[in-house]
Amino acid sequence: MYLDLSPEQLMIRDTVRNFSDQVIEPRSEEMDRSKEFPWDVIKAASEIGLMGMTVPAEYGGTGSDTVSYTLAIEELSRASAVIGVIIAVHNSVSAYPIVKFGTEEQKKTVLPRMASGEAIGGFAVTEADAGSDAGGVRTTAERDGDDWVLNGSKIFITNGSVSEYVIVMARTASGTGSKDFSTFIVEKGTPGYTYGVLEDKMGITGSDTSELIFEDVRVSDSMRLGNVGDGFKIAMVSLDGGRIGIAAQGVGIAQAALDQCIKYSMEREQFGRPIAKFQAIQWKLANMATRIEAARNLALHAAQLKDLGQRFTKESSMAKLYATETATWAAIEAVQIHGGYGYTKDYPVERYMRDAKVTEIYEGTSEVQKMVIARDLLK
Question: Which candidate in 30, 360, 363, 367 is catalytic?
């Protein structure tokens, strides 16, 4: 696969790179340290259209293609994995499902607020007993006239307590099949909808990861997303696209690690010369660069297939699997190249290592990606 980026795609990439260097990078260390949601950075990102990349122009977004979106998430994540995941989740598994499955009323009501950054979006499937096994969801939605009444809880929800709108998958039938679930758009402030534990995480600490609690939450049927029984399908379609974004996040983290290693190895001297002169370091850098380029191309290939309207489930899983494992590996290599300094907070590589690991877990673990890939190969 050879992907020749268009002038517009290159312009978007370069614009986001410049934004990341000037606005995000100077705040990245403080975001990690304070563990506070970076509202100022998200506001700035909104002003250049990054919160509406998957939203069509008619609803206030930029209507960017998936390749452009993938390039943008990589550049954002290179400066901060926190900003990368906030914007990726908002665009790919919150706004996009509404674009694809929503009614015209839902699109006109919700999408302009999301595209402007006025409203942050979230995606809620995971529960205490339903992680990799999405079919284990126990949150229920029972029909009551023109409303649905939701009861249950979700955990590990990115953008959880800051989201104005959350896509929630709930059980609407008592069986065990994929048709027993439906999805709903739940708005912040709805009576009975509250937040529980705010997770204290190892990495991406400035990203809000929360428990969501639903106690007799009444949601109008007009806010049901898709048909009754389509919840599992909507979640899986959303995750197919979401995994491209997380792959791009992994590429961005890995690229940041390589950039830092090149800089450090040319400055750090041992035995009378820069460590970049030693073959052992050169080979590490060469291996890092090669794996990162392979991961980037896997992500862009999956994005291109999505833009062409072709099936991309296997390719998005391959990209997510390889790019996220490359991110963790590259970050560990970066710490090793930095030696003792790499294990301190004097350099950002220890943050890259902490941030990278979760990319192998959320939006489908590496093990789940292997299952998806193998299922496609053996069908």
Answer: 363
pLDDT at 1: 57
Torsions phi, psi of 158, nearest 5?
-65, 135
* 315 is an active site residue: no
Q: Where are the alpha helices (DSSP H) in 51-123?
A: 66-79, 81-89, 96-101, 104-116
For the residues of 220-231, what is the DSSP string, one character each? EGGGEESSTT-H
Cβ burial 18-30 (10 Å sphere, 16+ → b, else e): ebbeebbeebbee
Number of residues that this document lists for the chain: 379
Q: Which two structure tokens, joined as six digits, stand for 267?
A: 């400055």
pLDDT digits (tens, 9 = 90+) for 299-341: 999 999 999 999 999 999 999 999 999 999 999 999 999 999 9
CATH of 122-229, one of 2.30.29.30, 3.40.309.10, 2.40.400.10, 2.40.110.10: 2.40.110.10
**Contact indicator for 80, 18 with CB cutoff of 8 Å:** no
112-148 confidence digits (pLDDT tens):
999 999 999 999 999 998 888 888 899 999 999 999 9
**Dist. CA 300–CA 59, nearest whole Å:** 26
Residues 6+ apart with CB under 8 A from 290: none
